[in-house]
Amino acid sequence: MNNRATATVHGWLLLLPAMACLVIFTHWPAVASFIESFHSTPKARRPARFVGLDNYEQLLADPIFWKAMSNNLWFALGTIPASIALALLMAVWVNDKIVGRTWVRMAFFTPTILPMIAVANIWLFFFTPQYGLLEQIVGFFGGRSTNWLGSQDTALSAITIVAIWKEAGFFMIFYLAALQALPPSLGEAAAIEGASRWTYFRRIQFPLLMPTTLFVLINAVINAFRMIDHIFVMTRGGPDNATTLLLFYIYQVGFSFWDTAYAATLTCVLLALLALVAFVQYGFLERRTHYR
Amino acid sequence: MSAPAGQTVAAATRTDPYAPKGLSLTLESIGAILLALLWILPLAYAVWAAIHPAEFTTRFVLTAPLTLDNFTRAWAAAPFARYFLNTFVLVTMILAFQLVLGTLAAYALARQDFWGRDVAFALILAQLMIMPDALIVENYRTLAKVSLIDTIPAIALPYIASAFGIFLLRQTFKTVPKELDDAARVEGASPLQVLMKVYVPLAKPTYIAYGLVSVSYHWNNFLWPLLVTNSVESRPLTVGLQVFSSSDQGIDWAVICAATLMTSAPLLVGFLLFQRQFVQSFMRAGIK
Lengths: 292, 288
Prior knowledge:
The complex is a heterodimer. Chain A is an all-alpha fold. Chain A has 13 helices and no strands. Chain A has helices spanning 3-36, 54-60, 63-95, 101-113, 116-127, 133-140, 155-181, 184-192, 197-208, 210-224, 229-234, 246-255, 260-291. Chain B is mostly helical. Classes of the chains: A mainly alpha, B mainly alpha.
């Protein structure tokens, strides 16, 4: 065997354990979902059969699917800009030498460490009608009583707020790292030119943070399509599907209704959405790795 | 990440012309502290409810008596000892496999030049976007076929090959000077020995960073463990807590808060002790 062939065998042997797991639990399931989305759900007496685009037609006519899509869109629009803006603000604050900086930085980061499923219980209490914390505060200022999680108008917003709280501190870390990596000479030069603090941020710091913003943005988009732990505790998709997001609907269809073929069809939609994000990220990662 | 010593000293003596002073420092501090209080509120409330008798769950009186009763009741109400053990076994198992598989794959991708390497790398990176959460239906079916449902390995399997880990280690291995590798080979070390003696020790900070991220992620993971477990013997803490707090014993917020704190305590204590390393590891994980 020549050198090149030996290297290839060695390389693939090293990759084999990881690749096998990835193929079994990532690549194959993705392909299988695609194939299954063109079949019917197997029943005890009737095996799966090819049904063409039937599942996709069902999907287009399914009001809950559209509800889940629009909920997910609103959820993404609600969480992404807010958590990124807050993360940036937090990072700028804890990068400056403010009073109690270590403590503040820790407080911002705490939600990242806490299991969502555990803190969702506490948020559930905050939103509880009559005696919940939010009710008590609203009541103190003479506001009207609201069933935050039980009303169609407020449930999705409540879910969104919890997600923003969870995400902002996590994204802050990336901004903080980026801010600390900026050379201090930039600030000195800007100060000599007489730029105001705001101008310095807007014209120098913020543009230089763009790669970080892009990285955070992609993470935020992916998270917006997979953050569902708190929905299990707080609303279970209700009231009347007002908080059903795409992944939660897949769970419901697949594991409550056991309609696996339709769940596979929904999975394909989710994968297509993620592929779109992947497309953007690929170009980005490529550029990043070429940096070094 | 580590700057040369001279540079650090220079940075320390330098003054930031945009550092807030006087009134703006006060305003900025107040704003940051208010937001921090808001961010810590759920945890603070959980502590309040957990250490006071149930009648003070919704009444905030400073003179309320303290008690540990809620913790005892929560501990007795569900097999938390078992859940802790399950979670511990789970995160250890996942991390061990992730590190071994990741190290081998990263080494191949970083330092071996072979046919199909770029394709392999692209296939691995695909997992960064197609997260296992999206594939719950098919993965459940796969594990049901091999009769692994309701076991701890079933929770671990979809995660043990981690694209993020492989990517991170590949980046680190690429920074190891080629001369060290060559020197070890001249000494007669086999490729596997070179990996263990040269690359792994030099990548220690990356291993620690990745370990922290992985442990906290899988300690907190919920959806997949919820699906594949249905008995006390395999349930991790997160699922156990959910089963416990949605059971029909009426909502006892004090006990739920105590259980919540117990569940998060190991990570929280770990975070308080290693706060700096935790934050830095996330930073490192983010920028590499």
